[in-house]
UniProtKB/TrEMBL annotation:
Gene3D superfamilies: NADP-dependent oxidoreductase domain
Molecular-function GO terms, alphabetical: oxidoreductase activity
Official protein name in the record: D-threo-aldose 1-dehydrogenase
Residues covered by the NADP-dependent oxidoreductase domain: 14-313
PANTHER family: GH17980P-RELATED
SUPFAM superfamilies on file: NAD(P)-linked oxidoreductase (SSF51430)
A GO cellular component entry from the record: cytosol
Top-level lineage group: Bacteria
UniProt-listed InterPro entries: AKR, NAD(P)_OxRdtase_dom_sf, NADP_OxRdtase_dom
């Protein structure tokens, strides 16, 4: 498995495992499935794993810690997130979580980007993970907390990085504008960008990605299938985009991309996985998995060679912008 290195020396495998499904995303899974998924990832060379307290109200972190507990600590990179504390939820006993995870509702999420909230979040994550340090801590979706995230949360993460509790800090978001603000105004190492730099859309080329290259900030690409829109060889009429029914024009665009891929013997999801890694700012692509079989499927897509002519043809048919196309040729 190839790796790429952040400016601070932290090394990430080009393919990572996203552990939202370890938190029972949409349906229940088991500890055994989670361990088997990590075992399969490890056997294939993956050494980067991403979780968050939000995923299953702490369940994903606990399963991540369990699955990695037998692995040498210096041989893997683990990221988690801050900004949502997991607190008691009086009255929720007997109910189920309402944010997409099949877990009991006796706990709930509480937004908190204060300094104390960040310190508490990291301490609680370390306990759930069973670790004494975290490699990367991302602010998790601070869209409505720009000032507090800048003035309190990121300085708190810098303190923890200076103390060795963290090795790198950044933000994980579904937009490009606020991460660019953090790069300009804070000492961040890495940004996890979900869904905003994909085969379907490249808005992050306008500002975030050039800025990341200029400042030496790594980009971890997540959500590369755009909520599933790029996850099948052809896009069904009922596909979703940004967790809502996809507009007809996006479905048509994705299917036009799929047609070009097919002419080159490549599937749409295979090209979607390869695409972000062509940009010099991108250090890893994180794909979610629940089981060992899903990890193996991710490997198959990642390992598929994609000819350079495919990107040229997408550009010539108006499906990739000139800026994107040029950066690929240079690489």
């Amino acid at each position: 498995m190839r790796t790429r290195v952040l400016t601070n020396g932290l090394e990430l495998t080009e393919l990572g495992v996203g552990m939202a499904q370890f938190g029972n995303l949409y349906r229940a899974t088991t500890d055994e499935d989670s361990v088997a998924a990590v075992d399969a990832a490890w056997a294939g060379g993956i050494r980067y794993f991403d979780t968050a307290p939000h995923y299953g109200l702490g369940l994903s972190e606990r399963r991540a810690g369990l699955a990695l507990s037998s692995r040498p600590r210096d041989e893997f990179v683990l990221s988690t997130k801050v900004g949502r504390l997991i607190v008691d939820n009086p009255g929720g006993e007997g109910g189920r979580d309402t944010e997409g995870f099949d877990v009991p509702a006796d706990k709930r999420r509480q937004w908190d980007f204060s300094r104390d909230g960040i310190l508490r979040s990291i301490e609680e994550s370390l306990t759930r993970l069973g670790l004494d340090r975290i490699d990367i801590a991302y602010l998790h979706d601070p869209d409505d907390f720009r000032d507090q995230a800048t003035d309190e949360a990121l300085p708190a993460l810098v303190e923890l990085r200076d103390q060795g509790v963290l090795r790198a800090i950044g933000a994980g978001m579904n937009q490009a504008e606020l991460p660019a603000h953090f790069i300009r105004n804070s000492d961040v190492d890495v940004i996890m960008l979900a869904g905003r730099y994909t085969l379907l859309e490249q808005g992050a080329l306008d500002d975030l990605l050039p800025l990341a290259v200029e400042r030496g900030v790594g980009i971890v690409a997540a959500g590369v299938y755009n909520s599933g829109l790029l996850s099948a060889n052809r896009v069904p009429a009922d596909a979703h985009y940004n967790y809502e029914p996809a507009p007809a024009e996006l479905i048509d665009r994705a299917n036009r991309i799929a047609e070009v891929c097919e002419r080159h013997g490549v599937t749409l999801p295979e090209a979607a996985v390869a695409f972000p890694l062509l940009h010099p700012a991108v250090v890893s692509v994180v794909l979610g998995a629940r089981t060992a079989a899903q990890v193996e499927s991710n490997f198959d897509r990642f390992d598929t060679p994609v000819p350079a002519q495919l990107w040229r043809d997408l550009h010539s048919e108006g499906l990739l912008p000139q800026g994107a196309f040029t950066s690929y040729l240079e690489n």
